[in-house]
Design goal:
This protein has 310 residues and is of the alpha+beta class. The chain folds into 3 domains: 49 residues, Arc Repressor Mutant, subunit A (Orthogonal Bundle); 194 residues, Bira Bifunctional Protein, Domain 2 (BirA Bifunctional Protein, domain 2), CATH 3.30.930; 49 residues, Roll (SH3 type barrels), CATH 2.30.30.100. The chain contains 9 helices and 14 strands. The strands form 3 sheets. The protein has a 7-stranded mixed beta sheet with strand order 3-4-5-9-8-7-6, sandwiched between helices. The chain has a 5-stranded antiparallel beta sheet with strand order 13-12-11-10-14, with no helix packed on it. The chain has a two-stranded antiparallel sheet with strand order 1-2. Strand 7 and strand 8 form a beta hairpin. The relative contact order is 0.12. Bound molecules: biotin. Biotin binds next to helix 5, strand 5, strand 8 and strand 9.
Amino acid sequence: MDLLAALSEDWTPGPALAESLGKTRQAVAKEVRRLQQAGIPVESSRRGYRLAPGAPVPQNVLPKLKGRFGRPYHYHGTLTSTQDELRRLAEAGAPEGTVVLAERQTAGRGRQGRRWQSPGGGLYFSLLLRPAYPLDRLPLLPLAAGVGLVRAAGVGGLKWPNDLSVFVDGELKKLGGVLLEAQVLGEELHYALLGVGLNVAEGGLPEEAAGIRRFLPGARRDELLVRALYEIERALAELEDPEGFIKRYKLHSLTLYRPVFARWVGEPISGVAVDVEPTGALVVRTKSGRKKRVTAGEVSLVGRVSEVRT
Ligand code: BTN
């Protein structure tokens, strides 16, 4: 057994750990420092060592899993991006449901080529999908992941297409996001890497973000992860009926029926978001009354919500 697997949320004295691992106390102390430097939340005190409560380590996560996703589960301290590591595993034949999670990322990626800041205390994971869907359903995968995240977090809603967001004093703050990277061979989807970033703790986040603990103070990361994997699995299964799925997606939308400004390939569009089609496209009605479809890119809500409602 290695040191990480031997740790729990209860304090274990250094000598007891050393004895059970067949190592010296100095070797255990050195290994703890190595784990801490890698970003793994191991705490030390005069009482010994323990894992920070709720750490998404395998011994906390695996017994709680309710569905197929999360098996196998690869837990890391620091990675460039969980997408990179999962791609490597996917190319080596890893099965659908494989999850890679890192405590920190040095080059986390967001949508639209942006960086995803990944300070310690969040949840950063990638999930491997090998769906047998027609390729035109691909844009619905991140929407389904978004629905899964709202159901799992129990707070906020979705800014189109899949940002888990919440209004704070009339401004939208981002609690989490989804990045889809797909490997397509000819007309077939070979595999998809669904990357999920959830802001949990409040520290180290950009101005436009907020942590889930602001709304759920006691939220444990291991439980949040397990719920997210289960709810993403359930929402993906709902894609068998895209029209029914989109009806449920719309119930969580924070974008629908609000003034928006969309930036994407082609000219910028302003108007009111009036629909989300079963393809996942957002329909915006412009001032001239024309309806335009937005299929990719970034959409901002215009004005503070208090202004929009009056
Ligand atoms: C977005 O821009 O809203 C999507 C953010 C997705 C971030 C996650 S964190 C885990 C995975 N690894 C990455 O590099 N990105 C995704």
